[in-house]
Write a structure and sequence with these properties.
The protein has helices at residues 6-9, 13-21, 39-47, 79-85, 96-103, 148-155; strands at 26-29, 55-62, 65-72, 75-77, 91-93, 121-124, 133-139, 142-146, 158-160, 163-165. The protein contains six helices and ten strands. The strands form three sheets. It has a five-stranded mixed sheet.
Length: 166
């Protein structure tokens, strides 16, 4: 059963998807500083969580298919590794407008959960070393904490080494 907070009851598509699936999660809201564009690092700092446990959701174009990549906020996405993880040779970062249209979320608030259209999803394998991880809950200043196995199950993600130290 989800731990209810005011933010969770706000019902972002991510929390709605988690609740509908019966997945245990904890909602974490914080005051987002509009001047801060490093959303994931800000979340780790404000929430007092190790950046290895806070993951950012990025969208890439892999052979014409928008693909979700989930990597630790203290690292960078390896586009070539992402492409290889889904059976292709190269990837590029997705056009921000296309990412917004596909997911229904604003940049800095893209959650891997509850997206408008499901996309192939790859989670960096480092997530499996954590009991729980944090991902965007669907808006800036709002993260959800859940087990990586639940995230994999809900997003139909595969895991691969797609991140590297920043």
């Amino acid at each position: 059963m989800a731990k209810k907070t005011a933010a969770a009851s706000a019902g972002t598509p991510a929390t709605v998807a988690l609740t509908a699936a019966g997945v245990q999660f904890t909602a974490h809201s914080y005051a987002h500083d509009p001047a801060n564009t490093s959303y994931g690092t800000e979340a780790a700092d404000v929430l007092g969580v190790s950046p290895e446990r806070v993951f950012k959701t990025l969208m890439a174009d892999v052979a014409g298919t928008l693909t979700v990549a989930i990597v630790p906020v203290n690292g960078m996405l390896d586009l070539k590794a992402l492409a290889q993880a889904v059976g292709h040779k190269k990837a590029t970062m997705a056009d921000p407008a296309a990412a917004k249209r596909r997911t229904g979320y604003v940049l800095g608030g893209i959650s891997p959960l509850g997206q408008r259209q499901q996309s192939p999803t790859v989670l960096d394998e480092s997530a499996l070393l954590c009991e729980t991880i944090y991902v965007s809950g669907g808006r800036r200043g709002f993260d959800v904490e859940l087990s990586p196995t639940d995230l994999i199950s809900l997003t139909k993600a595969t895991t691969a080494k797609i991140g590297h130290p920043g």
